[in-house]
From TrEMBL:
CDD domains: BTB_POZ_ZBTB_KLHL-like. Residues 1-16 have a biased composition (Basic and acidic residues). Pfam families: BTB (PF00651). This is BTB domain-containing protein. Residues 35-65 form the BTB domain. It comes from Trametes pubescens (White-rot fungus). Residues 1-20 are annotated as: Disordered.
Amino acid sequence: MEGYERPRINGDDVEHVNTGAASKNRDDEFWFDDGSVVLALGDIEFRVYKGVLSDYSPVFRDMFSLPKPTSPSDTIGEAPTELTADSCPVVQLSDHPGDLKHILRMCIPKSGSILNPFVTNRPSRSTISALIRLGHKYQMGVVVDHAVAYLKIWYAAPAFDTSPKWHLLYSDDGAPGKTYAIEVVQLARLIHEPSLLAPALFLCCSLGEEIVQGYKHDDGSCSALSLEDLGRCIAARSRLADETVSLVLSVFSPPVAKACATPETCETAFQDILSALKGHADLIAHPDIFRSIPVHLGSGLSAMKLQCASCSKMVKKRDADKRRELWRLLPEIMGVRDEVDGWTQERV
């Protein structure tokens, strides 16, 4: 994945390996009696297979290659060890058990489970976050790639489609949601994925008080924007509102289309639209610059119905062209131009 950097391995990432599989709470989904390693996270234990995890992760492979203790008095690092009846090694991890489950479902899908949640259905937000965060931590590049590719469908679609699907930025049909954009900003910075950064910050600008409250995860933890990113969003809101007003004026201003069949009627329609909008600044002075202006305003402006087919087509083209231009400027608008290389070369 372009921009993905493998993190360094250090002692804080992974706890010690030992052979003490004291009876705690066995996970109902991932406990295989013939498993070759027990992963212990708090009071939850998972018995799985070294070979499978090693194939996905060089971090796990290195952990599993550590010498196995030979007696109950042996230690690895600071951790005292014990021996189980079948001498199955235990790896103590500091991750949340629920997050690890998402990783295991990708690596060790069970009978009747969905092999790839990104192909056959839409993964939950907790799944996406866990796969990226733990996938990055354990250097599971394939897992991270799947999750990032899915996020790009919703947060960066216009840059990867010759026919921009701007509506996906605002879709309620299975989209992760605007509040989740706060988490996407954190994920984009974690894995150095610039294509997600500007769109995610842009969606944060549409939030109300949630932008300060942060995104709350299922386990009660919270992802919040840094003060620097919060400042970027506050500064960008004003610029975005100005750009939206400018977009509306350029879309509905005369002249009419060259092939217009009813120039006087359509010119009057344009003037009526602009006059109507003067009393409804709230409809246009907002940060959602990628919401289609003709579609968004058309149902509330009867004058739109008076335009001929040529003028209607011209209005839609003006709208799309202006939004393409603003897309190219998005990193600059969001204050992350220096962090996003090659943005203007992206296809829109």
